[in-house]
Amino acid sequence: MTPIDRARPWLRAHPLALDAALALGVLICMVLGSFADPHGPNGPTFGTRTPGLRSLVLMILGAGALVLRRRRPMAVLGCTGVLAMIELSLGDPPAPVAMSAVVALYTVAAHTDRSTTYRVGVLSVVVLTGTAMLFGTPPWYSQEHLGIFAWTGMAAAAGDAVRSRRAFIDAIRERAERAEHGREEEARRRVAEERLRIARDLHDVVAHHIALVNVQAGVAAHVMDKRPDQAKEALAHVREASRSALNELRSTVGLLRQSGDPAAPTEPAPGLAVLDDLLGGFRRAGLPVELARTDDAPLPAAVDLAAYRVIQEALTNVRKHAGPGARAEVSVVRVGPHTEITVIDNGTGAGSTAGDGGGHGLLGMRERVTALGGSCTAGPRYGGGFRVQAILPVKAAETGAPGEGTS
Fold first, then answer.
1. What average pLDDT does the segment 197-219 reach?
2. In this predicted model, what pLDDT tens digit does every residue of 285-329 receive, in sequence order?
3. In terms of pTM, does the model score above 0.70?
4. Which of 78-92, 148-162, 187-201, 220-234 has the lowest mean pLDDT?
């Protein structure tokens, strides 16, 4: 790191010190320039003349005003401009007091807008050059007057260029910060969606399998003494449901593993391909279920998983809330670009319309279907029972639904 790089942060934190150093440098340049005589016998010479007291005072005042150039740029430009006009009118030849006005004009151009720079720049060029031409001893076409014209014009142009570059860099920095903020928001949104998806999966798995385990355990306890064979069969169903629950929980929780953790299970997510096994589990638990399916064509992974979970949750609610003697019907129909899932029952239980008590099951179904761009309705049937229908847009899901493709 160079000394300039090390000093830059301190100078940014103390701009007044930087301006004071600049004012001192300008004063030195003006004093040295006042010893030069552009009209020597053999061309410009140095040391053949000395500045008068008036010129020294004007140079000191002009350099001192530059200390406040950032705080009051227009006032400093006006002050240095007046001092330069006095020297151009009375000096013979004049000392380079106009150098302080050139620096002040650059400061104004670098800290204001372009229209202000044009107006102030043109006014400064006209006033300073006009004063030198009208009141100076050299002829109006002399090179000294051309130099004043050129330096003031270049100061305004350089200040405007610096201001434009700063605005461009600030715009790039703002866009980068906005893009970074957008990436952070997108990351947070994706994390929230993934957490919601995993929560839905965990709820569906636990609610379904625990309900089956509860039913089969109750059957085993009821017939343990009188019908031990039937009790053993019920306990076998409990063991099978528990094993299935553990496998699905392991697959779901495997999504939370880090890259260095042991490998997660690679079993595919459940779908309509194992729908018969799902319905068989409910039938063994004592819930008669009929299936009507008009299309066995494979569905996109997101739709396949959502359809399976909707059926699973709806039948779990039937088993828990529809009351004794309830029957259920499941239909899977492909209608154009949509797949319609319908689950109805003829239950008469008081909790049949309550979903899963707290409402999380029905809410989870709606969120899952809505995430795919579909719709889900649930409510009592006319004449008794409950009806759940989900319409899933297959083609929309094929383009990618967030967080639903794998388990």
1. 69
2. 788 999 998 877 788 888 888 888 899 888 888 888 887 788 899
3. no
4. 220-234
Rounded distance between C-alpha atoms, residue 157 and residue 51, angstroms: 31
Assign 240 to helix, strand or coil.
helix
CA distance 312 to 64: 84
Question: What element of type H or E holds 268?
Answer: none
Question: What is the three-state SS of 106-158?
Answer: HHHHHHCCHHHHHHHHHHHHHHHHHHHHHHCCCCCCCHHHHHHHHHHHHHHHH
The answer to whether residues 72 and 64 touch, using CB atoms and an 8 Å cutoff, is no
Find the radius of gyration of the CA atoms of the chain: 43
Q: Residue 64 burial by CB count (10 A; 0-12/13-18/19+): exposed, middle or buried?
A: middle
Instruction: Provide the token pair at 122.
Output: 């043109």
Distance, in Å, from the CA atom of 401 to the CA atom of 302, rounded to the nearest integer, reads 7
Cβ neighbours, 10 Å, residue 110: 22
- Which residue, chain included where needed, has tokens 């019908």? 227
pLDDT higher than threshold 70 for residue 256: no
Token duo for residue 182:
């957008």
Q: Which residues contact 302 (CB under 8 A, 6 or more apart)?
A: 372, 397, 400, 401, 404, 405
Q: Between vectors from CA 218 to CA 215 and to CA 222, what angle results, nearest 5°?
A: 140
- Listed range (128-132, 268-272, 385-389) with the worst mean pLDDT: 268-272
* Cα distance between residue 78 and residue 117, in whole Å: 14
